[in-house]
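User: Hi! I'm working on a homework problem where we have to compare a predicted structure to a textbook description. Could you give me the structure for the chain below?
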Amino acid sequence: MNEEHNLPEPPADEEAESVRMAIWLLAGFAPSVIGIACLQIKNPGQGMMPLLLVVDLICSVVASIGLVRRMENEGARFATGFFLVPFFFVFNAFIVAFVGCSGTGRIAP
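Assistant: Happy to help. Predicted structure tokens:
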């Protein structure tokens, strides 16, 4: 007999919560995708870098709030959120800098 059918199904609320967490993680790393896409621009102008940093900061804050909002302990929620904002911000900047310096994000002329 197949053991896959004997496993209990996760409740719908847990499954929906897992999907929400994945969406918040994707929102946290969205600035990396936007920054890598901006590497294709030949003459980005002076406003591109500050705009990308603001988008990175906003996405980092929003994703951190979304990820910690279900935590019940206020202290743990604050500490985790306080850690996640700079983590997302720096990690996104590192990803874009690494791809930009490696030349992977550019299309050959």
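For your comparison, note the following. The longest helix spans residues 74-102. The mean pLDDT is 84. Good luck with the assignment!
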